[in-house]
Amino acid sequence: MSKGPVLFADIGKKAKDLLTKDYNSDQRLSVSTFSDAGVALTSSAVKKGGLSTGDVAALYMYKNTIFDVKIDTESNISTTLTFTDFLPSTKTIASIKFPDYNSGKLEVQYFHDRASFTTAVALNQSPAIDVTATIGSPTIAFGAEAGYDTTLGSFTKYTAGISVTKPDSYASMILGDKGDSLRASYVHHLDLLKKSAVAGEITRRFSTNENTLTIGGSFAVDHLTVVKAKLNNHGKLGALVQHEVIPKSVLTISSEVDTKALDKSPRFGLAIALKP
Predict the structure, then answer these.
(1) Could you tell me if 216 and 230 are in contact, meaning their C-beta atoms sit under 8 angstroms apart?
(2) Quick count: other Cβ atoms within 10 Å of Cβ 14?
(3) Under 8 Å between Cβ of 175 and 162
């Protein structure tokens, strides 16, 4: 693949991951095993309130091909097939979920030193089409996204964004929801290894005059322990601790609390990922 600009889907992703990834108020247990033959098996169970769900996933990698299948307790089967460089500088992704045969989707990504493009088409009688494009370099990228419904004959979405990447920081701005929302984010790394960082994100929705500001950070206490926290202007506070108990086995404990309703009990989540 080229060393050009990121895909449009990756604009703003660094701040989003820092402020949302691994935060979990549910009880989750995940066990994964890997083999030298390129096979990975993952079994997960989640308990949310009084409802328990689970799934089993298998992933097989061979040369430039990845086959991924997942079966859950509701008898849904999700399959994804990914080809890298099937054509030069491209990645092709085909997915479908059974028994919903209309959920099929085919996506083609193209990478160039000065641009990247994606086209995704739903595999049904009235396909929806999504197209994205970015131009620029690994340092600065301008991008746009559009979705078109062939049944209605109209655009379902159009979005534009820009990202700027420096060795120790990352900034992005996205105009989305057909021009109704504006989201700006910033990430600053605090160390050379980029294990500790602070981030801020502000979202403005013009139709409701609503603003949401979220700030957070991730801090490496040592090479085995990471602490994360976030707070928004609506009083939602989240925190988590991740500790590598044994090599490739990570224990995550997270909690969320509404500081404007302190009479309510905080929600705690527990996630254990075992990866021998």
Answers:
(1) yes
(2) 22
(3) no
Concatenate the DSSP letters of all residues of 90-120 into one string. Answer: EEEEEEEEES-GGG-EEEEEEE-SSEEEEEE
Q: How many CB atoms lie within 10 A of CB 114?
A: 12
**What is the pTM assigned to this prediction?**
0.84
**Strand ranges for 123-209 from DSSP E:** 128-136, 140-149, 154-166, 169-176, 181-189, 197-205
SS3 17: helix
Cis status, amide bond into 167, omega within 30 of 0? no
For residue 54, give both structure tokens: 């689970």
> Hunting for tokens 């928004």 — which residue is that?
232
Strand partners, 258: 236
Per-residue pLDDT of the chain (276 residues; tens, 9 = 90+): 557 899 999 999 999 999 999 887 677 777 777 777 778 888 888 877 778 888 999 999 988 999 999 999 988 999 999 999 888 899 999 999 988 888 899 999 999 999 999 999 999 888 999 999 999 999 999 999 999 999 888 999 999 999 999 999 999 999 999 999 999 999 999 998 888 999 999 999 999 999 999 999 999 999 999 999 999 999 999 999 988 877 767 788 888 888 877 655 555 555 555 555
Q: Please state, in angstroms and rounded to a whole number, the distance separating the CA atoms of residues 90 and 106.
A: 13
